């Protein structure tokens, strides 16, 4: 077990190192002078030279890379070129809306997706199963910025039930905060509900056809006990895996959702950063999100042994 | 991002013959529905100049008009014909989606086959693939595009690169299982050279899995293109594309909802067609579902 954890940690560090090198080289190997790219088309020679000096671009590449990694490990993610403030400060200011949206989306996707999947597997070919098949085909195919505008049109513009867009910080009251997040959460979670429900259904179907399920039924176990005590526990590993993957992939959808609903989160920070060519921000968000992805995957791999004692490494 | 990928077992290709089509329709209607819809969309897009109006003509006197006989879906905020733009937008969306999916499939196939056969290459390249996979698709594409500025060429590259690792992983896993099969060993013993074995004996077994994954990648590529264009970093704004249309009309949702719904529905239908086709292919190639029928 300890050997496995160690091996897993080493490969995690290796992957992060590769991501780091890749992101580092992206800007350096791009056609043209990185300082000129950052400065924009109308910059003078002095401004470009200043940026080059500020970023330490005159040093050899390995030195630049090691300095970059050292600074990041010390919590210094560089300074935004446009705002002139530390990147980490800018990111932490935008963290609340993004986290609120992500967490609500995961709660909705997991509860609805898992229950949908269990019901569909319980009565294969039944009405829930057919509904799920249709819904999941749609859930995969409608991008969040299309479903988002449909939801806004029908639930905000036409009926005035919910606010059209915007974000209210949690400090200003739980009610307004929640009401503003309903539409974005629903729009963003559709694809994840479809994904989680499909995997839950497949995983449950596999377990339900096992011999011990027949034994449980023969003993007279109730449907509830069969589904939740006997089946769900054994179907848990794949379900947990997809929940982890979904969470890690969420950030891509968050970027689009925040733009549709005008939520001032990290996604909007990135989009604004592209328009301003604020490379330190793009670079930091990339490395932080992929770090999160790797961390979530690591946690899930290690959590397998906790939910399924049969798994031994 | 490949949410749909599922393990697909390698099967011989003998079943893919034309005489199989009628049975295909009966057993796997999804393949025909999705594929047919896709072919229809491609024909509609290619024939756009024959029946749709001018997608870029600006008419300041006809801004945000409701649907009429002249402009079936009304006009947008610059007085452009929404129907024509939607139809012409299909061209760019399908083109970018198909080309980047083809690039990703080809690159993934190449990397996967070599990685499946060479230990040293495998260790290095698959770690790089793991790294690429850990960066969210749309963010990686944004970072790549932010280097050169928007353009069709960089867009295709930026969509293909994040999709490649999933293809490579899948192809590699198929190759790893096939290379141990007796017929590969027999071919090698019989004196066939490695490139020939790879080409004649190993490559064909990866095709079913590659086709299923290709459909997934294609759906994802079309969505990524639209998403990037929606964010303003994809297709240059002067070219009509579904993402651009939604982005430029978003302030007029309350007045002229069709300016957003028309491209949005077309986008969803296109992705749905590709997904149905891919789902159908997976059922068709999956020995488990085949036995059940």
Automatic annotation (TrEMBL), chain A:
Stored Gene3D superfamilies: MetI-like (1.10.3720.10)
Any one Gene Ontology molecular-function term assigned to this protein's record: dipeptide transmembrane transporter activity
Alphabetized PROSITE patterns for the sequence: ABC_TM1 (PS50928)
Primary localization class, coarse: membrane
GO cellular component: plasma membrane
Transmembrane regions: 9-27, 99-119, 131-157, 177-197, 235-261, 281-307
Subcellular location(s) per record: Cell membrane
Bilayer disposition of the protein: Multi-pass membrane protein
A Pfam family recorded for this sequence: BPD_transp_1_N
Key words of the record: Cell membrane, Membrane, Transmembrane, Transmembrane helix, Transport
SUPFAM superfamilies: MetI-like
ABC transmembrane type-1 domain residues: 95-304
KW ATP-binding (keyword) present: no
Family note: Belongs to the binding-protein-dependent transport system permease family.
UniProt protein name: Peptide ABC transporter
Species whose genome carries this gene: Phyllobacterium sophorae
From TrEMBL, chain B:
UniProt main location, coarse: membrane
Protein name in the entry: Peptide ABC transporter permease
Pfam families for the chain: BPD_transp_1 (PF00528), OppC_N (PF12911)
One GO CC term, this protein: plasma membrane
GO BP term, example: transmembrane transport
UniProt keyword terms in alphabetical order: Cell membrane, Membrane, Transmembrane, Transmembrane helix, Transport
InterPro entries on file: BP-dependent_transpt_permease (IPR050366), MetI-like (IPR000515), MetI-like_sf (IPR035906), OppC_N (IPR025966)
UniProt superkingdom: Bacteria
Record carries keyword Transport: yes
Localization, UniProt: Cell membrane
Bilayer-crossing regions: 30-52, 92-117, 138-161, 251-278
Family label: Belongs to the binding-protein-dependent transport system permease family.
Lineage, top ranks: Bacteria, Pseudomonadati, Pseudomonadota, Alphaproteobacteria, Hyphomicrobiales
The keyword Membrane belongs to this UniProt entry's keyword annotation: yes
């Amino acid at each position: 077990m300890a050997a496995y954890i160690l091996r897993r940690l080493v490969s995690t560090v290796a992957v992060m190192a590769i991501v780091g090198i890749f992101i580092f080289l992206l800007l350096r190997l791009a056609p043209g002078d990185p300082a000129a790219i950052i400065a924009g088309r109308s910059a003078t020679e002095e401004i470009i030279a200043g940026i080059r000096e500020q970023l330490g671009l005159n040093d050899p590449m390995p030195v630049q890379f090691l300095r970059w990694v050292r600074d990041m490990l010390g919590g210094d993610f560089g300074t935004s070129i446009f705002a002139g403030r530390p990147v980490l400060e800018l990111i932490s200011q935008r963290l609340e809306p993004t986290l609120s949206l992500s967490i609500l989306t995961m709660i909705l996707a997991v509860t609805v997706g898992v229950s949908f999947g269990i019901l569909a597997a319980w009565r294969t070919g039944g009405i829930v199963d057919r509904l799920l098949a249709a819904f999941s085909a749609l859930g995969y195919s409608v991008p969040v910025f299309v479903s988002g505008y449909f939801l806004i049109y029908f639930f905000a513009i036409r009926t005035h039930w919910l606010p059209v867009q915007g974000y209210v910080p949690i400090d200003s009251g739980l009610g307004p905060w929640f009401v503003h997040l309903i539409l974005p959460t629903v729009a963003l979670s559709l694809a994840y509900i479809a994904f989680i429900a499909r995997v839950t259904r497949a995983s449950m179907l596999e377990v339900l056809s096992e011999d011990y399920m027949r034994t449980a039924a023969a003993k007279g176990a109730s449907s509830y006990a069969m589904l939740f005590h006997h089946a769900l526990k054994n179907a848990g590993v794949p379900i947990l895996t997809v929940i982890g993957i979904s969470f890690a992939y969420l950030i891509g959808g968050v970027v689009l959702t925040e733009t549709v609903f005008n939520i001032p989160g990290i996604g909007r920070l990135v989009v604004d950063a592209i328009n301003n060519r604020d490379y330190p921000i793009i670079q930091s968000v990339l490395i932080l999100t992929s770090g999160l992805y790797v961390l979530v995957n690591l946690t899930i791999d290690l959590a397998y042994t906790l939910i399924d004692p049969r798994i031994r490494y | 991002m490949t949410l749909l990928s599922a393990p697909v077992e390698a099967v011989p290709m003998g079943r893919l013959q034309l005489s199989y089509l009628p049975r295909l329709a009966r057993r796997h209607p999804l393949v025909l529905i999705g594929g047919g819809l896709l072919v229809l969309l491609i024909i509609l897009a290619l024939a756009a100049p024959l029946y749709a109006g001018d997608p870029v003509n600006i008419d300041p006197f006809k801004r945000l008009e409701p649907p009429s006989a002249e402009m079936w879906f009304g006009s947008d905020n610059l007085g452009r014909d929404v129907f024509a733009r939607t139809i012409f937008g299909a061209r760019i969306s399908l083109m970018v989606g198909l080309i980047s999916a083809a690039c990703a499939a080809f690159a993934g196939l190449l990397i996967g086959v070599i990685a499946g056969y060479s230990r040293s290459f495998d260790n290095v390249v698959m770690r790089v693939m793991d790294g690429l996979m850990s960066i969210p698709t749309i963010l990686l594409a944004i970072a790549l595009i932010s280097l050169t500025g928007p353009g069709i060429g960089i867009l295709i590259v930026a969509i293909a690169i994040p999709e490649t690792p999933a293809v490579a992983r899948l192809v590699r896993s198929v190759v790893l299982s096939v290379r141990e099969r007796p017929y590969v060993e027999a071919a090698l013993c019989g004196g066939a050279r490695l490139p020939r074995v790879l080409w004649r004996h190993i490559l064909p077994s990866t095709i079913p899995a590659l086709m299923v994954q290709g459909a997934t990648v294609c759906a994802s590529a079309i969505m990524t293109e639209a998403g990037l264009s929606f964010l303003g970093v994809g297709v240059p704004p002067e070219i009509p594309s579904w993402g651009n249309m939604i982005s430029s009309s978003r302030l007029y949702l309350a007045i002229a909802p069709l300016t957003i719904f028309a491209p949005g529905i077309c986008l969803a239908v296109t992705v749905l067609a590709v997904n149905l086709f891919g789902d159908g292919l997976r059922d068709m190639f999956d020995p488990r579902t085949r036995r059940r029928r």
